[in-house]
Amino acid sequence: MSYPVSADINSSGSNNLGTKINGQVGGNCNSGTCEITGGTVSGINLFHRFSSFDTRGDIQKVNFEIGSQNNVIVGVTANKGTFINKPISLSSQGNLYWVSPGGIRTGSGADFINVSQLTLSTATSVHFSSGGVFDVFGNNSLHLPSVSSDPLPGPLGLINDPDQRTANRITGTPKILLEGIDITVDKSLLVDSPDGTVEVINSRLVATSADNVAGSITITGNEVRIDGDSQLLATGNEQGGLIQIGGSWQNSNPTVRQAIKTTIEYGAFLDVSAIYSGNGGTIVAWSDITNLLSMTLVSGTLKARGGEYGGSGGRIETSGAHLRTEKVIVDTGEGGEWLLDPFNYTITDNSKPSFTSANIDASAAQVRGIHVADIDNDGDLDIVSAFYVDGTIAWYENDGNSNPNYTKNIVSTNAPGANDIYVADMDGDGDLDIISGNVGDDTISLFKNDGAADPSWTAANIANTANGTNSIHVGDIDNDGDLDIVAGIYGQTYIAWYENDGAANPSWATNNIATSLDNNNDVYLADIDKDGDLDIVSASGSYDTIAWYENDGAADPSWTAANITTSADGAEAVYVADIDSDGDLDIVSVESNIDTIAWYENDGNSNPSFNKQVVSNSADNGKSVYVGDLDNDGDLDIVSASLNDDTIAWYENDGAGDPSWTKADIDTNADGAFHVHVADTDRDGDLDIISASLFDKNITLHENNGAATWTPAFTKANIGSNLINTPVDIHHGDLDNDGDMDIVVVDYVRQRTQLSPASDFYTIHIYENDGAANPSFTKSTIPHTYAEGRRIAVADINRDGNLDIVVGGGGGYPLMGIIWLCNECGNHTWTPYQIDRGGLGGGGANDMRLADMDGDGDLDVIKAGDSNQAGFHWYENTGSYGVNTHWPKEILDSSEVPAPKAIDAGDIDNDGDLDFVSSYQNNGIRWYQQSQDHIMSWYKNDGAADPSWTESIVKTADRISSSRNNKIFDLDNDGDLDILSIIDGAEHGPYDGIAWYENDGAADPSFTENVIFSNVVSGNNSNAHGLEVGDLDNDGDLDFVITASSERGGISGTVTWFENNGATDPSWTQQSIEPFNAGSNHSAASFVDLDNDGDLDILSSKSRTLVWFENAGGYHFSSNNSSLENALKAGTSVTITTTSSSNSYVNSSNVSDGVGNITLNTNLDYTDGSGRLTLDAANAIEISNGYTLKSGSGGLELISSAGLTGSGSIIIDEDNASGDPSLTVEQSSNSTFSGSISGNGYFEKKGSGVLTLSANHTLTANDDIEAGQLIQPTTISIADVATSNENAANATFTVSLTEALARDISFNYATSNGTATAGSDYTSTSGSLTISAGQTSGTFNVPILADSTDENNETATLTLLNATNSTFSDDTATLTIADDDSAPTLSIADVTTSNETASNATFTVSLSQASARDISFNYATSNGTATAGSDYTSTSGSLTISAGQTSGTFNVPILADSTDENNETATLTLLNATNSTFSDDTATLTITDDDDASSTLAIDSSSIEAIKNRPLSSSVPCPKCGNIHEGECLSSDRNKNKRKISTRPFNEVAKGLNNIHLFSKIIESTFQFPEKKKM
Predict the structure, then answer these.
(1) Residue 87 pLDDT > 80, yes or no?
(2) Would you say the C-alpha torsion 152, 153, 154, 156 has a positive or negative sign?
(3) 339 touches 319 (CB < 8 A)
(4) How far apart are CA 314 and CA 335, in angstroms?
(5) What are the φ/ψ torsions at residue 295 (nearest 5 degrees)?
């Protein structure tokens, strides 16, 4: 078949641009070299138009003669676009603009010669700086004189007009596919598909410049994808170039169109480096950040290094509303910049990969060894195995796919008892050979690879007396440049090594290394002591020993044995690697008898010692171990195979210097797990696991899927309830043109009428969205009842800008057929128009779609008929609308398609027109009778204006009902449309299933069935109803949701989401959104962003309720820490920003709640790097708990609006080499960071916000608080002060910090009165104090004023205020002024009454001087000669002399009597003085007697004489007590106290008396005499 290139010549000549093909105007070319001449010249431009341009077939080359014109503008009008797979050459250097609205596709062999600037576009017109326009379809030569200047660049010049496309029958999404090409342009390449897609697959695109400065490559459209096998190069000798994918740097160039989705896959290589000198260039990977649906996914290598001999690194930007940069490698070298600009950003470590297991060989009996290597040199990793039982060596060829398949190839069947295997280039010929150790014949065999693509093998024995080889390892033992072999020999007390003589066909010399151990189960070669030669490590199970044998490095080496441990119980296997990343090699072991995986830490000495550390004690009878970084976090993990528990396990290293391990079981059903190996078999950048198990005879690949993907959460809410019965179909659209999505529902009810005893009627409801963030809906009902109106669709049928509704009914009177409800002016006024008549035999529809089936620019209807009108029908929209205007056109009638069930339209064969897919049951049997063939087919559109369709069967199956729901989507992202279907019946189990049919992309495609899930729900009548496809988790691949009505067969819920893992051969994981509950009956599903938050929500119906599941997953933006660390360590300065200070595209309307955050959810360590990391967040920056951000000499800058938060750690290990602050925190709001900040850097705080640290920062360099505050938990306190006396000149106050800070702390202070008064007791004082960085305290003074007044100690208060950079824990102190004046003394004066009748005796207590405080004391009376109760009233109490007073008084009441007596006394005593002491604490109360004498005493002289001469010692008669003798006590009536009578005779007493009267008184008072008798 030939593919012509022909000019498009209008018959009237009005559209003829004069293009000649091989000299003929309007000619064509289909072989050899096609010479293109003629055309239309306008200024510097030459125009050509082609009606088709396809170089496939026999065409060899196409040459354009361009004359002196600079620009060649080529328009291709073919609706199938352009295909170029041969060289396109300009006759001289020029610029080529290739514009093909139908699409552009290239293939291997395409090239563009003598092209300086190449533009490939699917635009419909090109605009010029002079103001003219080149219409690809319409201009003729008369229109072109005005287009004499250069075309305008990018979206200014390349315009897509949908109406033009429609008018010229170009349908579908515009697409440019550059596949399998290697092209170089001399200056620039622009690939631009307005409103379309661009894919670069397995291609190399180069832009150079003659002046040693690189060129530019710009690739953009709605969606752009650079696959993992492509290279884009814009390097220059003296300056790097420019690569723009999806947009320009920060959208700064309006001539670069913004993409909605940009993908750069893992393995892609983009380079804008300067080679010799000069700065690196710029790479941009961008999607429109203002569009919440935009997404940028970057996983390739982006390089922008400065020149080798001078120059700084360039700039790299990866930005988009959604941004993922896992596995990206950014390399700018020193001085470069990497900018990441999403709406939110999370830095993760991707440390939890998941694994998908698939059998490679299920009949691999007794595999004892496996190895992974590229056997056939095709760039992917194959697998080699050794079979113990049958002596087979086999290799499994990897087909190179991202989800590889393997083909088994036999190397040899003559390796009896093959017990271990190794792969290496033993003969130095550049291909990999195989070595096996065979216990059956005691040989070690070499199988030499001949290097062919499908290699053949030549066998040779290396050793014939290897008595039981347990294990082998390969390395250059004697450092002679060729590979030698070491073997562990069973039952022998030596380890053998076989010296390679280096020949092309090598010979081997056997050398035995003596050992006291036998049964060496495993051997390993590694330089244990870092002396430059390979040592041997062995594991001996019989002796429980792990030993190492030191190579002395000689040409004929000698060995020194040393045991590492003799307690490795059942030492089974060893592996050598630097487990703790300290630069020396450690040893990992399997100790099978105690189920232990352990590692032995090398201390790094030249004669190393080893310390055992247990990884796990649960590897039941472990057999094999392997080491690799499975989670891409920069440290080495361990993988093991254990026999008894059938387990392949992964032990995750936490990366610490003394690592801890977390076990994860990869496979617990590997029956007899025996061997394990680790390698990247699918070339996706992570390590997969290959295992062999004995008892199930399986070789299994466990594919590492990378980090667990982000999973959205869903919140259920009812929209409408109490419907008539059940919503059977749901659609959505902006029916009222207000910018939000409304909902249309068909509500089913079964009614009885006179016309039909039991008729099915359907009501159409509209739910108007109010546009809120959490929207509410207002229900209205279209005022028509439609019998059998079971299907609806929403679209603009008449192209008036308003969305209409099409309702598809069933057959049978009085049923409606198909009705178009015309939305009049978008105001919900609906006018019905008949598309297909109803009535008996009318237009029943099991399923219906709206699509432009004839490519005329308007939407037609295509349906799968029901039992009343079977077959397939399409209804051509002619643009003529009326009540009686019908559109029916039959495709296949009921005899050909008796029972169709579902239909969907799409361009299956990529030929530019719409085909359709459907399914039906053959032979007219009803769909639920599972006994006939059930057929799924696609129907090829021939592309005519009145198209015909040709059936091609996709699937025929017995006992599987026709597929009830088909969807056409590109499920594997390979550029062609696949089919997704719900299937009924028994082929994949007794219940419903889900399958997808993979399109192989051929012009006449074939399909491969892949069952995603079977046994979904049970029953002949299917219970799986709704199927909807979309990207629910915003990860760039298509997921789907099914709804079901009952819980059968293992599906997880009535609404279930199947998550696509994004692989080339994808797999799906189901997750329940709505679990099964009683009464659940979900019957329809639709995806729509109801709340305008950028993710897809789910609409569904449940019984009589319309519900929506709000996707609350938000945004997903992430980068793995290793990508950032590697860039920073290489000197690239990295900026992650969710805002922009220089651009206006981020504003309040773009940033909603929860958006604008940057979160660190991993450890990030770039201490060895000189790059500076800047996090610039529109909202908050969070360092999550448990994670550490550790910067290098480039420093760290944290800029945010809401501030720094979280409880992780920041460590600044080096002061910034540039002199800039090591850590800068700038924020405009207040926040608290509860983590720690430490290191020896310099802290700068900027911005008006206050940053409060819950833990002290301990950066040792100075702080610079430029604005706002930095508050730490180091708190300020002040101590109380007490003066020793009033004469102290100053009271000194000390203010203390809980610990020293690296910055000054300042505050104010002020005094206030307490009991002390400013001005008399102290001087009022206020001021400020600064405690300098590094100090812990400061002091200030308050002057004290002295006085002479005795007073209490007095107090004043010191208050601290307005702390800067700290807070107060104690902000007040008390100043106590101790009084040093002597206290006054108290004295009391005696009191003598004037007579007994004075009512009170008043006592005065006096102070020696006044006091400033109250003085109190107690007082009490006591008898003297006066008696309390008869002479005075006993008195006690207390008295206070108030401050300032000098005396006080109190009274003692006096009692009068009539007795003549002596003056009498009582005593007053003072006690318990307060604030004073006593100088005289007693006083005498004298009571003066005021009574007259009433009797006299008469005595004769003889009596006196007798008394005078009688001593008192003689007895004296006493009327009361008898005689009185000397010394005796007599009791007196008046005085009960005993009195001693004087021994002096009375005459002596009498001598002292003045008169006898007095004497008589004395006598009377002493004695009681009988009453006197008158003489």
Answers:
(1) yes
(2) negative
(3) yes
(4) 7
(5) -150, 135
Who's near 1063: CB < 8 A, 6+ residues apart?
402, 403, 705, 972
Q: What element of type H or E holds 167?
A: helix 162-167
Looking at residue 762, its pLDDT comes to: 63
Q: In angstroms, rounded to a whole number, what is the distance separating the alpha carbons of residues 697 and 408?
A: 15
Is the distance from CB of 1148 to CB of 1189 less than 8 angstroms? no
The Cα–Cα gap between 443 and 459 comes to 12
List the single range of 259-268, 662-671, 1118-1127 with lowest mean pLDDT. Answer: 1118-1127
What tens digit of pLDDT does each residue of 331-356 get?
Answer: 888 888 888 887 666 665 544 566 77
Picking from 1406, 1553, 1546, the residue whose alpha carbon sits closest to that of residue 1483 is: 1406
Handedness of CA 79, 84, 90, 95 (dihedral sign): positive
pLDDT band with cut points at 50, 70 and 90 for residue 642: very high
Contacts of 1169 (CB under 8 A, 6+ apart): 1125, 1128, 1129, 1130, 1131, 1192, 1193, 1194
Q: Which of 1523, 1532, 1519, 1420 is nearest to 1468 (CA)?
A: 1420
Q: Is the dihedral of CA 148, 151, 156, 160 positive or negative?
A: positive
Separation of first and last alpha carbons in the chain: 191
- Contacts of residue 54, Cβ cutoff 8 Å, sequence gap at least 6: 3, 4, 5, 82, 83
Per-residue pLDDT tens over the stretch 108-128:
899 999 999 999 999 999 999
What's the rounded Cα separation, in Å, for the pair 298 and 318? 7
User: CA torsion, points 276, 280, 281, 285, in degrees to nearest 10?
Assistant: 130
Q: How far apart are CA 952 and CA 948, in angstroms?
A: 13
Phi, psi of 217 (to 5 degrees): -130, 125
Q: Rounded to an integer, what distance in angstroms lies between the CA atom of residue 1058 and that of residue 779?
A: 31
Q: Which helix (H) or strand (E) holds 13?
A: none
DSSP-derived letter for residue 657 is: S
On whether the CB atoms of residues 1567 and 1541 are closer than 8 A, the answer is: no
CB contact burial 533-569 (16+ within 10 A = b; e otherwise): bbbbbbbbbebbbbbbbbbeeeeebebebeebbeebe
**Cβ-proximal residues to 203 (8 Å cutoff; 6+ apart), any chain:** 106, 178, 179, 180, 181, 182, 183, 230, 231
In this predicted structure, what is the pLDDT of residue 1507? 53
Per the structure block, which two tokens stand in for 1050?
């293992």
- Residue 426 to residues 450, 474, 867: CA-CA distances in angstroms? 12, 9, 72
Tokens of 1244: 């700068």
Q: Which helix (H) or strand (E) holds 1565?
A: helix 1556-1566
Task: Provide the token pair at 863.
Answer: 């349906």
Residue (of 1338, 1326, 1324, 1322) closest to 1288 by Cα position: 1322
pLDDT digits 0-9 by tens, 1043-1102: 775 544 444 456 788 888 777 788 887 777 776 553 455 556 777 777 766 678 887 766
Q: Rounded to whole angstroms, how far apart are CA atoms 761 and 1117?
A: 48
Cβ neighbours for 1038, distance < 8 A, ≥ 6 positions apart: 969, 970, 971, 1029, 1030, 1031, 1060
Residues contacting residue 899 through CB under 8 Å, at least 6 positions apart: 867, 870, 920, 921, 924, 925, 926, 927, 962
Q: What is the structure's pLDDT at 752?
A: 41
Residue pair 98/82 in contact by the 8 Å Cβ criterion: yes
Read off the tokens for 591.
């100790």
